[in-house]
Structure formats: structure tokens, C-alpha cells
Amino acid sequence: MILRLVLALNFFPSIQVAENKILVNQSPMLVVNNNEVNLSCKYTYNLFSKEFRASLYKGVDSAVEVCAVNGNHSKSLQSTNKEFNCTVNLGNETVTFYLQDLYVNQTDIYFCKIEVLYPPPYIDNEKSNGTIIHVKEKHLCPAPQSPESSKPFWALVVVNGVLAFYSLLATVALSNCWMKSKRNRMLQSDYMNMTPRRPGPTRKHYQPYVPARDFAAYRS
Which of 54, 63, 146, 183 places its Cα 20 to 30 Å from the Cα of 160? Predict the structure, then answer.
């Protein structure tokens, strides 16, 4: 009889500790290949008819709150960090965080936190081991073009080809006109150089006047 009482006394404190303690279980690691992942956090606590808060934190020191939900199972309010695309889904024993549009530099360890806000006393879970979310770089392969989408491309190619052809013709025509004009100017210049010119007045050279000598006077 005494032994049963001792066992009963040892049993009731363990129940009280279990009721005032929230345990959270997470996957140790998740690999992200398509920039989105679902992180499920399983908890061992009855949150029915209680006001609670479920949140997800990033980093070893849980410095960045990714997203959170406040309320109860019938009504809740969600808040999200502007650097993340996150939605929360509440289940009976699971809180699932849907993360989308993840980047490589967001690879880190993430922790789930469950808090009972009302009725008192305030209870939160012990920090779990967390989940390492490894975001791999996504290499997008070019999608094959459909025939419909290629039609505008070929139409643009044809239009550009026609414009280039007419531009070439206009350039050749202008070049020919310029060459003909230049040849005509050169011919006119040669003709002007070959035309005989009227000789100008020539200067007459006059012999200086020498008076005639009267040889008869010398004879006499």
C-alpha cells in the first residue's frame, strides 16, 4: 500500500511537468532545389481553446523572425518578414511553414517556436535542434519557342532585310550620281583649258631716232 502511494506521488509531478512543457520536433535538414520548401514543426501540447503564437526564426541565435501566426485554431493573424515569402498552416499537432522564392544566401538553420499566451501561465517550447535549409542555385533551361512565338521574330527579320536592301540601293544610286557629277566637272575643266585664246596686244619696239648726216656739207 505504501509503495503504491509513493509511486502515485512520483507519477503526478511528471504529468504536471509534461503539461507545462512544449516539445517541438523538426527535420534536421531540408534541401531546396526549386526555391521553395515546406518546414513542418510537430509539437506535443494541446493548444485547443488557447491563445498561442507560432513563429519561425532564422540563424543560430534566432535573430531574424521569418514569419509568425497569432491567435487560436478558429481565428489567426499572420505576419511575415518583407525579405521572405512565407505562409503558415496550422494543424492539430503540426505547424507548417511554406517558404517560397528562396535565395542561395538564405541558406541557414531555422527554428520553430511555440508559445502559449493565454490563459496563464505563459509557456514556450525548449529550443529544438532546428532545421538546416540548404538552398541550391537554380539553373533555368531556356524553354523551347513555339511556332506562334517565332512568327514575330521572323517577320522582324524580313522587315529589317528589306530595309537594309533598299538602303543599299539608295547608297549605290547616290554614289553613281556623285561619280557622274564629278566626271562632268572634270571634263568641263579640261575643255576650258584646251580652248584657244585670242592673243593680246604685243608691244612694239621702236628704233631710237638718229638724225641723218649731211655728207654734202662735209665735202664742201
Answer: 146
